[in-house]
């Protein structure tokens, strides 16, 4: 069934029982759940993941390209202009749990977000103090427990018939903007659903055409025959066609007709359908839904950018960095209060004053931005109206001895 037709609306039922304490050391339930048994979100995550990610090479490539890029950006802890290279929050993000290291955690988090429009993480630890572990939960196993004040009252996870509830503060719910829901985000795959269907169906049609000898469908018919084919003759003719004239190995074999039979094509050839152009068009639409320049997907004639380097820079500046900043800010709001309370400094305050503790991105080593960094460096270095100290400050080096 097509992806577009599988999407349906709805709202999960709110759960009543009290949620598990924020700090109780309950890890999320993990089990092998097939798409047929999955608890569906209002957008059917299982169908989006199957049709849009597992079966579509363009969506697969776009999602992995963005997710790997986001995960490759180092995250640092800062207080104002001070960078803290040795902080327990960095250790937690570097090894969130025994299963995942930091980069894989961010890669999977971003992947869930781009497929479902929602990503969920659970912090696990003692009743007092910062969390000891962070765990990701599949979006199709989670539902929001709606609160009367417009904020989530908690979250419920259901896997293989088992239910577990969590307080709202213990779960990070990263969601995209959804104009039709206050509780769930909208998956980019929803916007690209029709393009995904067209691209997948085009691939299936092309494969079927190859398997049927590379010729369009047609019909064998009798004209001015004295008598119709008997059942035995029909069965034998059908068997001959299936065994001798269909399939890639039989491509080009001439069809020998006798007994007044004639062949008439009923389908269109790939050239008549302009198949290649149509498939490239749907590939561009899928790539654009994820904010990836089509040129980076290998789509022919995608010459919006002068060269590959410009397309790569556009991907980072327009898609990867804004998404990575959003994730860093969400992690800051979710995790920092626990670490600040543990250090006795109060909510996001420093012993040096009121400078906030936050997570930031270290973009200095991003290869795609090297050219732009070099241009900025040269522009500031050649600014004659700036002193050396002002140039150092503008470039982030600070004054000598500071």
Question: Could you walk me through the main structural features you see in this protein, from its secondary elements to its overall organization?
Answer:
With 402 residues, the protein is an alpha+beta fold. It is built from 13 helices and 11 strands. It starts with a helix and ends in an 8-residue tail after the last helix.
Give a quick rundown of the structure:
The chain is an alpha+beta fold and about 400 residues long. The protein has helices at about 5, 45-55, 55-70, 90-95, 100-115, 190, 195-210, 230-245, 270-275, 275-290, 310-340, 370-380, 390-395, and strands at about 75-80, 80-85, 120-125, 135, 140-145, 150-160, 160-165, 170-175, 220, 260-265, 355-360.
Tags for this model:
11 strands; alpha+beta; 14% strand; 3-stranded antiparallel beta sheet; flat; 40% helix; 402 residues
Topology:
Blueprint: H1 3-6, H2 45-54, H3 57-72, E1 75-79, E2 82-84, H4 88-94, H5 102-116, E3 118-124, E4 133-137, E5 142-146, E6 152-159, E7 162-166, E8 171-175, H6 188-191, H7 193-211, E9 218-222, H8 231-244, E10 261-265, H9 270-273, H10 275-289, H11 308-342, E11 357-361, H12 370-381, H13 388-394
Antiparallel strand pairs: 1-2, 1-11, 3-4, 3-8, 5-6, 6-7, 9-10
